[in-house]
Amino acid sequence: MKIVLLEPLGIAKGTLNQLSLSLTSLGHDFTAYDTFTTDVNELKKRAGQADILMLANHPLPGEVIRADDNLKFISVAFVGIDHIDIDACKEKGIAISNTGGYCDDAVAELAVGLTLDCLRNISEGNAAVKTGGGKQGVKGHELAGKTVGIVGTGAIGMRTAQIFKVFGCKLIGFSRTKREEAKSIGIEYRPLPELMAESDIITVHTPLTPETRGLIGRKEIAAMKEGAILINTARGPVVDTDALAEALKADRIKAGTDVFEKDPPLPANHPLLDAPNLICTPHIGFDTRESIDRRAEMVFENVLSWLNGKQIRKML
What we know:
The protein folds into 2 domains: about 1-100 and about 290-305, NAD(P)-binding Rossmann-like Domain (Rossmann fold, 3-Layer(aba) Sandwich); about 105-280, 3-Layer(aba) Sandwich (Rossmann fold), CATH 3.40.50. Helices cover about 35% and strands about 15% of the residues. The strands form 2 sheets. The protein has a 7-stranded parallel beta sheet, sandwiched between helices. A 5-stranded parallel beta sheet has the order 2-1-3-4-5, covered by helices on one side. The protein has helices at about 15-25, 40-45, 60-65, 85-90, 105-120, 120-130, 155-165, 180-185, 190-200, 220, 240-250, 290-305; strands at about 1-5, 30, 50-55, 75, 95, 145-150, 170-175, 190, 200-205, 230, 255, 280. Strand 9 (about 200-205), helix 10 (about 220) and strand 10 (about 230) form a beta-alpha-beta unit. The longest helix has 19 residues, at about 290-305. It contains 12 helices and 12 strands.
């Protein structure tokens, strides 16, 4: 079969060669591209008439999918698949597998790290020292004893909750599915309005779907405690950006976000760029050396398993 990796996976060339050998040694034709592109015509050219496409988190438009008459399977080196035209895949009966689980630790650790920065003013303290200042005005708060609201108790939300539990936090949660595993580690489920009002820290871990777009909106942010912290390491559009910016500028809450409507660099007029009380990172939650190597192994494993007649990590 013809198998095409449309974009680089962020791994060493030697690692890619070793992983691709698992396909070529079986007689399959494998091509890997070492540059990113969002140009539709270039993507069509790269895909050609491949039976299998592999990619990470750049868009795969329906026009590209529909142009490939042989396409049967897409292996995605990412957790979310909202960057792929799902309708086009459904039309053509194309199966999709992701690499869910590759970055559970990485994202959970960043969520806790952003929380600690908000609580202990780490970035602010660093700036004070480097500009000749001292500790005046940077006194913070302890994490121990705080109530943490986990919005979305999937794998990453659960891992985040486990870490917060070690710090001595009370755990409450909101999710469409109430998991017994979550209850067993001490998460008490609440309706979303109650979670927003009760939590000292709210950390968002839901995928982006039509149902979750704007899930944390103006009403939900308004319900937050004075001085509470909102952490988003999920998807930018799950939180209403304008409402968040207004609350930050009103000095009502703090926030830490790793995600936006699109990845940075952000436009100069983006409402969060001049917002106080905010710690930002440029969508790095998933991006550690360990997690990137892990997802590469998983994306090839998806292909090998599908070729053997068993689809793993099935998304479609």
